């Protein structure tokens, strides 16, 4: 210690106070660096198998429910992701119509349970008013997201739960008696996914033998039977959708305007074959099958690329996020359409269009080989570019022949009354509930 003091004194006399203090600070810093515990960033928090699976399949989280005591309450519950404007076309709109008619048949109230966003009540009123329908009972809305902690829904023993997808069905199965579940199945939902966990879980729900199935179109029902779904064959019913003439009809055309060609464009829904569709349109324009001097090109759907241009720098018109009446008004002005669906279901846009007087080109898939039984204005070919371009060529000839096109329209075999579409099914469900 004395030696260190002598050295410090000698250093101070030679170099001064400032130099000594700087040396002391330097030695102190080195000591701290040598003795302090290094800072370590925390590693990843360990997760259990259950936590990983729950995070991956959050939409399958069971509905939180509790059973009401006392006298049973008549109520139909529709379980779906959303009834927002962009969700209402096709399947969700059909589910809303079905649940409304079922509630009326049973003298029950209707409750709409959504999982991804709150329900805008005006959307329900809009759909029902467009179709001239009215709910006779009370309507209720419940937002119950998969991660809800303090929220739950009550139910009584006689209630029905109409599920609208395999994931809403999976979420409902642990929460209510299976006899109360009716799965409104409007597509082979396995085809939403590549072969993997999602598809496997989907198929496991589709093969349940303890719930009832209501299948959208005979084509889709026969597809499931051919695929070996004996449960659907035994406990399933099918219906054909309706296209009421008050909604779907040809609108007056303004003289001198171009004819209208429409493509159903949904790039994020892979089954709609967006890229094949735009390639077909590009080829049809290049080959003068679609003469831009005579045809207006329209894309309708969702998430359409804003910078899309066709042959010669042609920019198509775009229609997105329409309400139901605007959509019906648009399809009523169309002469020729291209609408693709790489699944067994015919899908709604081709049927909406032919119900409104248009000619439509669509694709074959599995047992969906000929849609002539719906309308002679439907042209169904293989999903290949050359075949589809040739089908558009045939469609142009038919669409520009007013007499034949009108004759085919008058001979359409599409349903026009939703009450008739669901009559047998409502009778079965109503009689067994």
Highlighted features:
433 residues; alpha/beta; Rossmann fold; 2 domains; 7-stranded parallel β-sheet; 6-stranded parallel β-sheet; 16 helices; 15 strands; 38% helix; 16% strand
Short note summarizing the structure:
By secondary structure, this protein is α/β, with parallel strands linked by helices.
What does this entry look like structurally?
The protein has 433 residues and is an alpha/beta fold. It has two domains: 59-239, 3-Layer(aba) Sandwich (Rossmann fold); 259-410, Glycogen Phosphorylase B (Rossmann fold). Helix content is 38%, strand content 16%. The chain contains 16 helices and 15 strands. The protein has helices at residues 2-15, 17-35, 49-56, 91-106, 121-130, 166-172, 197-206, 218-226, 230-235, 274-286, 324-331, 348-355, 385-399, 402-410, 418-421, 423-432, and strands spanning 65-67, 75-80, 109-114, 139-143, 153-155, 160-163, 181-185, 212-216, 236-239, 259-265, 295-301, 317-320, 336-338, 359-363, 378-381. It has a seven-stranded parallel sheet. Strand 2, helix 4 and strand 3 form a beta-alpha-beta unit. It is globular, with a radius of gyration of 31 Å. The chain starts with a helix and ends with a helix. Residues 35-39 have low confidence and may be disordered.
Overall mean confidence score, pLDDT: 89
Amount of beta strand = 15-25%
Number of domains: 2
The count of DSSP E runs of length 2 or more, i.e. the number of strands, is: 15
Q: What is the distance, rounded to the nearest whole angstrom, between the alpha carbons of the first and last residues?
A: 97 Å
Shape: globular
CATH topology of the largest domain: Rossmann fold
Describe the strand arrangement of the main beta sheet, using strand numbers. 4-3-2-6-7-8-9
Gyration radius, in Å? 31 Å
């Amino acid at each position: 210690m004395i030696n260190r003091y002598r050295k410090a004194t000698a250093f101070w006399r030679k170099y001064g106070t400032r130099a000594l203090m700087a040396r002391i600070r330097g030695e102190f810093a080195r000591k701290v660096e040598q003795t302090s515990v290094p800072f370590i960033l925390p590693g990843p928090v360990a997760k259990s198998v259950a936590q990983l699976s729950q995070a991956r399949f959050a939409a399958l989280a069971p509905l939180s429910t509790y059973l009401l005591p006392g006298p049973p309450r008549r109520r139909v519950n529709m379980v779906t992701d959303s009834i927002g404007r962009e969700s209402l076309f096709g399947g969700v709109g059909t589910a809303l119509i079905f649940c409304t008619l079922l509630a009326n048949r049973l003298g029950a109230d209707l409750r709409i349970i959504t999982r991804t966003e709150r329900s805008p009540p005006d959307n329900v009123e809009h759909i029902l008013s467009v179709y001239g329908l009215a709910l006779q009972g009370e309507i209720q809305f419940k937002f119950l997201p998969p991660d809800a902690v303090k929220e739950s829904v009550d139910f009584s023993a006689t209630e029905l739960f109409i599920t609208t997808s395999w994931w809403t069905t999976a979420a409902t199965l642990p929460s209510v008696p299976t006899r109360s579940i009716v799965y409104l199945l409007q597509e082979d939902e396995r085809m939403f996914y590549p072969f993997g966990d999602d598809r496997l879980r989907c198929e496991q729900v589709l093969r349940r033998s303890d719930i009832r199935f209501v299948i959208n179109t005979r084509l889709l029902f026969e597809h499931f039977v051919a695929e070996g779904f004996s449960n659907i064959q035994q406990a399933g019913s099918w219906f054909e959708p309706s296209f009421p003439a008050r909604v779907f009809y040809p609108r007056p055309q303004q003289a001198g305007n171009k004819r209208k060609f429409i493509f159903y464009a949904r790039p994020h829904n892979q089954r709609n074959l967006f890229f094949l569709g735009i390639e077909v349109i590009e080829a049809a324009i290049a080959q003068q099958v679609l003469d831009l001097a005579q045809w207006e090109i329209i894309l309708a759907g969702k998430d359409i690329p804003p910078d899309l241009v066709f042959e010669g720098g042609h920019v198509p018109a775009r229609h997105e996020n329409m309400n139901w009446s605007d959509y019906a008004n648009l399809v009523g002005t169309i002469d020729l359409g291209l609408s693709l669906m790489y699944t067994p279901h015919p899908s709604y846009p081709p049927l909406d269009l032919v119900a409104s007087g248009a000619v439509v080109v669509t694709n074959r898939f599995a047992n969906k080989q000929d849609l002539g039984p719906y309308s002679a204005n439907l042209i169904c070919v293989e999903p290949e570019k050359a075949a589809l371009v040739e089908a558009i060529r045939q469609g142009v000839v038919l669409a520009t022949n007013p007499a034949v096109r009108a004759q085919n329209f008058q001979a359409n075999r599409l349903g026009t009354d939703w009450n008739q579409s669901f009559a047998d099914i409502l009778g079965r469900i109503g009689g067994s509930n």
